[in-house]
Amino acid sequence: MSLFQKTEQIKRIIEALLFVSEKPISKNFLASFFNISESEIKLILDNLINEYKDKESGILIIQIDESYQMVTNPMYSEWLTIFKNITLNNKLSEQALETLAIIAYKQPITKAEIDKIRSVNSDYAIKTLLDRKLVKIIGKKDVPGRPFLYGTTKEFLKLFGISSLNELPNIDEFQQINAA
Hints:
alpha+beta
């Protein structure tokens, strides 16, 4: 194996180590791990850092004191925020999804009406949906006690990739899909 091939192999191994490591890896550790000098490790790391920068990768390698870590490129932070919000909102429990469907199809609807349809208390599911801004309080029902009325939000539409509630499948279509 030539010196170039050995250096390239070490560079790719360092890349893999940085990828799986949750913490920065010190230059000293890498030098002892590969049994080469810290100056050689520094050259390899500088080369690797420049490769990621040059291709404007979504991943960068940064130096923190005498250690190195793989991080996401701040240039793409807006996309990461969108992704985080989508994945956070996608992790809804079955109870929350059921409650969300009821609100979407029956809005405006009160908690008592939701509880009656579900035959269980929906406090936690409604709180989760409110926290994730998928539903909101849209008013109060004109009955004794004036309970809150719930409806879906623009975030709900975004999450499901629709522009209006008219794009939801009608309940008959939905039941046919579930029966299949």
